Amino acid sequence: MRSDDAADAETEARHRRAADGGDAASMSVLGSLLLRRGDLDSAEPYLRGATAEGDRAAANNLGVLLHQRGYADEAAGWWRIAAVAGSAAAAHALGRHYRERGDEPAAEYWLRQSAEQGHALGAYALADLLEHRSDVGAERWLRAAAEQGHREAAYRLARLIDQRAERDSGEPDIAVETETDTEAGGAEAEQWYRQAAARGHRRAALHLGAILEKRGELKEAGRWYLTSAKDGEAKAACALGFLLRDAGDEESAAVWWLRAAQDGDGNAANALGALHAARGEPQTAERWYRAAMDAGDDNGAYNLALLCAAQERTAQAEQWYRRAAYAGHREAANALAVLLLQAGDATGAEPWFSKAAEAGSVDAAFNLGILFASRDDDRAALQWYERAAAAGHTEAALQVGMALLRDGEEAAAERHLRCAAGGGSAEAAFRLATVLDARQPPPGAPVLGEPVAEKTECEEWYERAAAQGHRRAQVRVGMLAAARGDQEGAARWYREAAEAGSRNGAFNLGLLLAREGREREAALWWTRAAHAGHGRAALRLALLAARCGELAEGQRWCARAVELGPAEVAERAARLREALHQELTA
To answer: What residues contact residue 408 under an 8 Å CB cut-off, 6+ apart?
Structure first.
């Protein structure tokens, strides 16, 4: 026998001798010890004996014993005796008894007696009762219990603080918080989550992990997720899986997702589905997406629809999009509408776009703009574009900017074009550059010895658009480079635009090459531009052919230039054609 066990046995033997000799305190201690051990038959006579001598702890424990035997009313009688005598534990037990009976006034009275004596369980039970009635006094008693180390109270207090912060931030007109107030509330909630988690509360550990992850403290977040997951919290196992995946450990992530999915976590099942889909295992992916649906996660149906769409199983994709959309999945509603629109059913698509947009889908709002624009309903289109743009949709901001430019509202247009350009739209960057360019005074003649001016903002936007492959911007950047005397840079941008199909780029590149005496190469680019409909390129080819004595070829390009225009080009080409005709017939 270990020394601790021997000491316990000796203590029990000593109390037993004293109890058998009539010592009330020892009877109470021995009865309590036997009760905790589960030896009710042996405990009862000692507890009754101590109770008869007025020991309130024994009266409370006797109530516990009788309650365990199923004698609830008799137990309540002894708890009342002990509570009246000042036992906080008995008052707590009596309050619980009355609450189970549905007598809330009596329950509140006795629980309050217990709580006011500093009993943690009494404070927690009173808080639970008051919270059930939406009584604002619940927080005070939750805090009292939490301060005494009650882990569930600490967790619920943290949730209360969190929920209040969310509610206040969502209703700024009702409760305005400063940033400092918000940070203080978050810090307090974290403190209570941490206390509850340290005492083994698995959901507190989950919330603490989420707070730390949001703050970027991933290592500590992972430790708390792991603690919670090992205690059986499926959401923590799922969150741990995402942390591991982001860290590059996909295999370990899959292990935790599997554990969470088997415990019914739909998000983890979706993650497994996506993992297998990425690995080219569609059947396994489909099985996990279906598991997510069975767990009540609407993303399962949406992801299954995406899987079917990728396999060109359009009818099945529509079926799953529709299921998710009816369940309120806004992106599924948008995807369903796109599918219907592609099938030519604009009438069927519109209500789904509207439903998704009203639910907050930015893409759906943008798509509604496109739909109304296709019907020449520019006013309705602009309303939806503005709504999407306000939510940060880059292409919608571009459309709003272009509409405002057409209406002459340049300042408002510039603001939207800046948003779209900042969001990565090459077209917006180009159009913003043109707006800024139009405001610049025409460049004067260069002064000898004058330093080279830095690039203007409009040139920077042209260059950003050009770098993204915008052909018109590339031509414009080439022209600006040529104006600075940077022939090499100009040629590079013209060539890039020309190779992407820009006829202006091909024409300007031809001009540069011709000035360098490389007319044969220039002719190749002018030919490409002329075939793409560039009249000046056709005229240049006609002039080149005439100089080379290829009169018939010159006439042919003159005819093409007359056809393509513009007017002054057509006029010059006509005169040249007449001259070539006279030369040929002379």
So the answer is: none
In tens, the pLDDT along 379-405 reads: 999 999 999 999 999 999 999 999 999
Burial class (CB in 10 A: 0-12, 13-18, 19+), 216: exposed
Buried b (16+ CB within 10 A) or exposed e, 271-286: bbbbbbbeeeebeebb
Residues in contact with 62: Cβ distance below 8 Å, sequence separation at least 6, in sequence order: 31, 44, 47, 48, 51, 75, 78
User: What is the rounded CA–CA span in Å between residue 324 and residue 300?
Assistant: 8
CA dihedral 52, 56, 60, 63 (to 10 degrees): 20
Q: What share of the chain is helix, strand, coil (3-state, %, to 5)?
A: 80, 0, 20
Quick one: three-class SS letters along 544-556?
HHHHCCCHHHHHH
- pLDDT at 6 exceeding the cut of 90: no
Token pair in block for residue 51:
């109770």
Contact by Cβ (8 Å): 107, 88: no
- pLDDT tens for 35-76 read 999 999 999 999 999 999 889 999 999 999 999 999 999 999
Residues 276 and 304: their CA atoms lie apart, in Å, by 12
Say which amino acid occupies 251. E
C-alpha dist (Å) from residue 152 to 220, 300, 308, 357 = 22, 33, 45, 41
Residues with Cβ within 8 Å of 386's Cβ and at least 6 positions away in sequence, in order, are 396, 400
Q: What is the largest CA-CA distance in the chain?
A: 150
Q: How far apart are CA 159 and CA 162, in angstroms?
A: 5
Tokens of 307: 């899987």
